[in-house]
Amino acid sequence: MARVLIIEDDPSVRDGMELVLGRYGHDVLAAATGEAGLHLLRDRPDIVVLDLMLPGMDGFEVCRRIRAAGPIPVIMLTARGDDFDVVGGLEAGADDYVVKPVTGRVLEARIRAVLRRVEPGPQQVDVDDFGDLLIDRAALTVAKNGVKITLPPTELRLLLELSAAPGRVFTRERLLELVWEHDYLGDSRLVDAAVARLRAKVEDVPAKPRHIQTVRGFGYRFDQ
């Protein structure tokens, strides 16, 4: 199972999640502040469950620092689920979100879904060469102009799915099914935020992408 880092200032919520996830077999680390949570990154958690409303350093800044430290996936906790929290958290680099209160079963399912995103699916070709972009599907690595770039699990899975069928248009709903594996009732914010983050890493000019094209009114397409 996974090593899960919980960063949550409410002791009852934190203790409850720690207890439930421990029962599912996870190795759980817990912190009450963003500063303490960042300190626990040295213990190499597989995934972070992060509350956005933290005292001191808020969850948005904590998420940005986690993302800068490496490809550790982040599930953010939001009490309201409104646009400010959700969009802000996704722009900061979160891979997924859940609205509190959340049951242990749902949280554990989200954790498993996020961690599955780094697992390679069945592919006929191990390495795709798109000129400036080289995607090794077996090794799960991506290089741009010969330089390896590190992608968090969600962005990597998104790139793998889009590039597996160049020229095909994927609706946001289909990408939600393929990448996030849950029914988000048409919440396209997850897809749009992940695409924006991915473009910033794989495109020379993200505002004028070469590979990841927006098909207005439908979704996204990968061009060679």
Compute the average pLDDT. Answer: 88
Named at the architecture level, the CATH assignment of the largest domain is 3-Layer(aba) Sandwich
Q: In terms of per-residue confidence, which ranges show pLDDT below 50 for 5 or more consecutive residues?
A: none
User: What is the CATH H-level superfamily of the largest domain?
Assistant: Response regulator
Biggest sheet strand line-up: 2-1-3-4-5
The main pleated sheet reads as: 5 strands, parallel
Radius of gyration: 17 Å
Percentage of residues in DSSP E strands: 15-25%
Number of domain modules: 2
Counting DSSP E segments of at least 2 residues, the number of strands comes to 12
Content-based structural category: alpha/beta
Question: Judging from the principal axes of the Cα atoms, what is the shape?
Answer: globular
> DSSP helix count?
8
Helix-strand sequence: EHEHEHEHEHEEEEHEHHEE
Straight-line distance between termini? 37 Å
Assign a percent range to the helix content: 25-40%
